[in-house]
């Protein structure tokens, strides 16, 4: 090939890599979209069968209203122009920087909303949940997301930040925001009837652990798009980096599952399926922030700690805080999201250089990660409380006792998921 054609070759290569990057983002976004099915199966499988239709309706609502709310206003609040100190962004209604990016970011917003669904399952008004889902995807999540992913104040080292905050795929931005919102929602809605007896938590078994298991497998699969797609490009070094992200994501999930499995086996004398499933999810959340800044060994350790942490956290939320979280969402997404963000400051890397304190990086990165964790927690908790308090005083948060006992499928939707025995019970009522 003549040297005269070299500029044309470079231009063609760049165009091909651009197209491949767009395709990678679309495929990854489709995988993340499929995670909604996983969330539905996990939540319905870990709770009572009389609420399965309600849970299905909530998950469909999240992706439907979330897509429209994020398209109309949320994406602009997240990726529009800086409107003051890197805290607030706005580019106008239906603002877009490209269809592939808009779609990819939309399914992330829906994920944040779905996290709340599991924590308040079985006793929350569908109308209330619908409104809060819109608020979360249109305002709470996107404003906070712009602080990091649109060059906001968390990346401004001229201000209070000792180093640039890192959250590659959203341990704090997506998962902790959803987890802290779930904490507030579960506390304000109150526990399910029969959850606490004389102040002690009663184990309320889910109706189908096979659903829950299949759901976690789907989420595990979707997470390869969640984290890998966050490279936002494909080709050359980007292809290598995205492949490494997928690898460490899988390693952390595996370590988290084994950590929870072994801990519950030692504590209870038998390996526990539901805790093992939550351990895998904890490992996935724990690597989401650092999947672009973690060695393979570091990912295994991060996931392992996440798997151990989620077991203790679920017990703490129930026994000490007396909060009923039907699926462990607060612990999996809130607590492990915070851990996954902080661990970058402990043993994170940037290429061949260490940025965590245990590999010679100093304390600056850990300080930046801690500031980010606290900022996202405060934002999600305060905003969630304000909106939920308003709804509690107006339309109410919770169904009646009679409706909860009968099941939300019938009382909220006039339908049931399973016929036969359950239909006979309803007829008798």
Brief overview:
The protein has a single domain, classed as Ammonium transporter AmtB like domains (Ammonium transporter fold).
Indicate how many domains the architecture comprises. 1
**Strand order, biggest sheet?**
1-2
Q: Strand tally, please?
A: 6
The overall pLDDT average reads 94
Distance between the termini: 82 Å
Second CATH tier, the architecture: Orthogonal Bundle
Report what the structure shows.
One of its GO terms (molecular function) is ammonium channel activity. The chain has 429 residues and is mostly helical. The protein has a single domain, classed as Orthogonal Bundle (Ammonium transporter fold). It is built from 15 helices and 6 strands. The strands form 3 sheets. A two-stranded antiparallel ribbon has the order 1-2. Strand 1 and strand 2 form a beta hairpin. The longest helix is centred in the N-terminal third of the chain and has 40 residues. It is globular and about 75 Å long. 54% of the residues are buried.
């Amino acid at each position: 090939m003549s040297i005269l054609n070299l500029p044309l070759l470079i231009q063609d290569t760049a165009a091909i890599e651009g197209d491949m990057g767009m395709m990678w983002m679309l495929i990854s976004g489709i995988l993340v979209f499929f995670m909604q099915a996983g969330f539905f199966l996990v939540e319905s499988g870990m709770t009572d069968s009389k609420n399965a239709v309600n849970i299905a309706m909530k998950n469909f609502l999240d992706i439907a209203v979330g897509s429209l709310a994020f398209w109309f206003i949320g994406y602009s609040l997240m990726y529009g122009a800086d409107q003051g100190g890197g805290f607030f962004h706005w580019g106008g209604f239906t603002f877009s920087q490209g269809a592939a990016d808009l779609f990819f970011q939309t399914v992330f917003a829906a994920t944040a909303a779905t996290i709340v669904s599991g924590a308040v399952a079985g006793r929350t008004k569908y109308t209330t949940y619908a409104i809060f889902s819109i608020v979360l995807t249109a305002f709470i999540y996107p404003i906070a997301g712009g602080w990091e992913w649109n060059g906001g104040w968390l990346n401004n080292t001229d201000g209070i930040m000792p180093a640039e905050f890192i959250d590659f795929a959203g341990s704090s931005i997506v998962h902790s925001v959803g987890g802290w919102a779930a904490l507030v929602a579960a506390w304000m809605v109150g526990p399910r009837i029969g959850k606490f007896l004389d102040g002690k938590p009663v184990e309320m078994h889910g109706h189908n652990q096979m659903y829950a298991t299949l759901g976690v497998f789907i989420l595990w699969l979707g997470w390869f798009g969640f984290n890998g797609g966050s490279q936002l490009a494909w080709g050359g070094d980007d292809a290598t980096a995205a492949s490494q992200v997928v690898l460490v994501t899988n390693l952390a999930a595996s370590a988290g599952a084994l950590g929870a499995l072994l801990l519950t086996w030692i504590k209870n004398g038998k390996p526990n399926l539901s805790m093992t499933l939550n351990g895998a999810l904890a490992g996935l959340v724990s690597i989401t922030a650092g999947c672009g800044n973690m060695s393979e060994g570091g990912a295994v350790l991060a996931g392992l700690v996440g798997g151990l942490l989620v077991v203790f956290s679920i017990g703490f939320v129930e026994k000490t805080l007396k909060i009923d979280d039907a699926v462990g969402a607060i612990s999996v997404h809130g607590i492990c999201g915070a851990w996954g963000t902080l661990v970058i400051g402990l043993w994170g890397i940037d290429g061949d250089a260490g940025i965590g304190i245990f590999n010679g990086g100093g304390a600056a990165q850990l300080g930046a990660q801690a500031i980010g964790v606290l900022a996202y927690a405060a934002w999600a908790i305060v905003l969630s409380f304000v909106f939920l308090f308003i709804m509690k005083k107006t339309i109410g948060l919770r169904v009646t006792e009679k409706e909860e006992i009968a099941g939300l499928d019938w009382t909220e939707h006039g339908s049931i998921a399973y016929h036969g025995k359950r239909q006979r019970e309803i007829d008798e009522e």
